[in-house]
Write the structure tokens for this entry.
Amino acid sequence: MTVATDLFDRQLRDLRVSVTDRCNFRCTYCMPKEVFGPGYEFLPRDQLLTFEEITSVVGHFVARGVKKVRITGGEPLLRKGIEDLIGLIANVDGVEDLTLTTNASLLARKSRALADAGLDRVTVSLDAMDDETFQRMNDVGFPVATVLEAIDIAAEAGLGPIKVNAVIKREVNEHAVVDMARHFRGTGHIVRFIEYMDVGNSNGWRLDDVVSADQILESINAEFALEAIPPNYPGEVANRFRYLDGEGEVGVIASVTKPFCGSCTRARISAEGTMYTCLFASSGTSLRDVIRSGGDLGATIDEVWGKRDDRYSEIRSSNTARLSVPVEMSYIGG
Ligand code: GTP
Ligand code: 5AD
Ligand code: SF4
Ligand code: SF4
């Protein structure tokens, strides 16, 4: 195995694979209905990478240093036969951590098959503990109780410890911070609060809408005392904190106020097989074209990663103006 490094000497370690651009939620910060309405054209089936193609791509990335693979969407559990894909990827030698990010709407019925196929764990997106707020945010009337039930079922199936990701938006779900901390303390599940990002073109992002990680931690700490703990591995996206009373930990992902581009080891593949070297990239390289024309996939990946100089979040911090027109979060998978 050779470890690929980019122009800033960052190694290629994590691969995030989107398996569909569709989602059954319409979270207002990600797929607002005004943009993703009934007339929206999602990718046609034949444009998606097949399971065999995805597995081959994963193999080439693992040969270049990738150890963690995360399956994303859209909503990845909407992809038919997803457990078969998990089985194929789990069998690739060198994949040490195989995970999936889901809105949990289909997780209760899929947990067993996913765990049996070799999925190590899941991360669940949930933005509030009260139905009024959660339903206003998912915008399809999906209830909190179904997500909570799915989290328990997934944990029973062995897909834990489960991480629960909450995007916090000013005046929308700020109150969810303490609600969620309180609910998940002592359960063994780990809540991570994410600063609302200016990703995509649809969500009308404003800096005023961001609740900073420091503010989030302050409101939890006022209720349940916290202390910082070291990362699980170098370059971990979330900053970790433990409850002083031993009831577990929380994380904050400060992509806006404390960007972490310097240790960013992530490559992303869209559902149609385009490789992006940054969440905020406006263009990528089609690995699907390389595969389907019989080209050299490994050499293409080496070339793209070798030229990588992305550090969008760091640059944006010093200059809040838009630098490029990024792809949508639901397309690139977060
Ligand atoms: P673990 O391995 O479980 O710790 O997962 P993770 O923290 O690598 O990934 P997860 O997918 O849970 O990331 C949570 C959120 O952090 C994403 O949905 C994004 O909002 C944000 N995030 C993750 N990676 C990046 C990144 O490379 N850049 C930026 N700006 N944000 C990121
Ligand atoms: N800012 C931060 N996180 C976001 N996500 C989607 N859109 C945004 C945004 N604008 C997160 C979701 C989910 C993951 C796929 O991406 O909450 O956890
Ligand atoms: Fe779907 Fe996740 Fe986007 Fe919500 S944040 S619309 S659940 S992909
Ligand atoms: Fe990595 Fe781009 Fe996110 Fe920076 S903004 S951490 S380079 S994905």
User: Anything to note?
Assistant: Residues 29-30, 72, 101, 125, 165, 167, 194, 196-197, 199, 203, 329, 334 surround 5'-deoxyadenosine (ligand 2) (CB under 6 Å). The chain is about 30% helix and 15% strand. The two ends are 28 Å apart (CA to CA).
